[in-house]
Amino acid sequence: MGTLLKSEKEKDMDKKKLIRNILILIALILLLLLGISQCSPKANQNAGGDHNLGTRGGRLILKIKSDTVTNGGFVYQIINNTDDSYSFAEQYKFYEQVNHKWVEVKPKIERIEHMYLEVVPANMTNEFKINYSTWYDLFKPGNYRFELEVMSDQDSSSEYLYDDFAVK
After folding, report:
1. Which CATH architecture describes the domain 60-167?
2. What is the spatial distance between Cα 95 and Cα 104, in angstroms, rounded to a whole number?
């Protein structure tokens, strides 16, 4: 009888693993489709521009808290002064200023983006912490740019927000 129960438990576990794997596969496919639909021919379309970007008239702002910056992470805020909620996953890039130009910092290993979304409700400010040392080498002293893609929950349009920071 103990063997029969174990066998049923194993079957239940196998079903749960299969369902989990299918959900992970669906999430990866959705992220891939989202990434393909948002591809841009420009490497950094926002370089040198206004930090308050997009069609929202500067009312959607990314701000790094400079007193939290280390060579492996920082705390940042997204200030949403719009009537739309915005969501984002870990779809971000870093750029380093080299000879007055922004050059993308390549990760040391291929990044795995989390399957969950962060939400910034309409007319709210949310604070987030990022530890990028898992995917990138520790940044040497210099000037850097953090660029984050956010998506409107109302019309699914994307915005690219960024802020510059210094590692000392």
Report:
1. Sandwich (2.60)
2. 4
